[in-house]
Amino acid sequence: MSANEDQEMELEALRSIYEGDESFRELSPVSFQYRIGENGDPKAFLIEISWTETYPQTPPIISMNAFFNNTIDVYLVHCRSSAVKQSILAKLQEAVEVNLGTAMTYTLFEYAKDSKEQLMENHHPVHSAASISNIISVETPNTAPSSKKKDKKEQLSKAQKRKLADKTDHKGELPRGWNWVDVVKLSKTGSKDDE
C-alpha cells in the first residue's frame, strides 16, 4: 500500500474510534489533537500529531506548543526551560521509533493516556492564580504600578432610578425643607383638647 492509502485507512479508523470523544479534535485530514486528562485537571496536556507526506514510513510531527499547555511551563518560569514538555516529547519519540512503519496515531494517544502520571511526574501544578503571580513576580521586577479597584455602585433598575429622580434634584440630594411641617395646616387643625 502507498503512504496515502495507509493515511486514508488510519484517518477513517481514527474518526470511527474517537467519534463523540470531546478530547479528540481533527484539525485537518493530516493533523490531530488529543487532550490527555480531564478539563480542569492541573496535569492535563494536549498533544498535536501531524502526518508528513510519507507517514507512516517516516515519523509524524509531534507538538506540544498549544496554548492549552502553557500551564505546564508556569512552574518552571524561574528555570526558563520546558523540561516537562521535553521529557514528554522524548518519551513519545521513543514510542514512534518502536512503531515506525505502522499506523501509530491511535497508539501514541493511548500511550500518553495510559502513562499520563509517569509523563507528568516532574510537573508540580500551581493551584491558584495568586501562586502563579507570586512565582512570576519573584522572577520579574514590578514595573507597572498597582491599580486600585474602585468600589462598584449598586445597580438600580429603571423604575428605581425614576423613583429616586422624582424624590431628589439633579444632584441626587433631597430638596430643602423636604421634612418640614406645614405650620399653617397644623394651626388650622388645632389640638384635640380644643373640641
TrEMBL record:
Segments forming domain RWD: 9-119
Cited InterPro entries:
RWD_dom, RWDD4, UBQ-conjugating_enzyme/RWD
Segment Disordered: which positions? Answer: 140-175
Q: Name one Pfam family in it.
A: RWD
Q: Where is the composition biased (Basic and acidic residues)?
A: 163-174
CDD domains the record matches: RWD-RWDD4
Superkingdom of origin: Eukaryota
Identify this protein by name. RWD domain-containing protein 4 isoform X5
What is the protein's species of origin?
A: Tursiops truncatus
Specify the taxonomic lineage: Eukaryota, Metazoa, Chordata, Craniata, Vertebrata
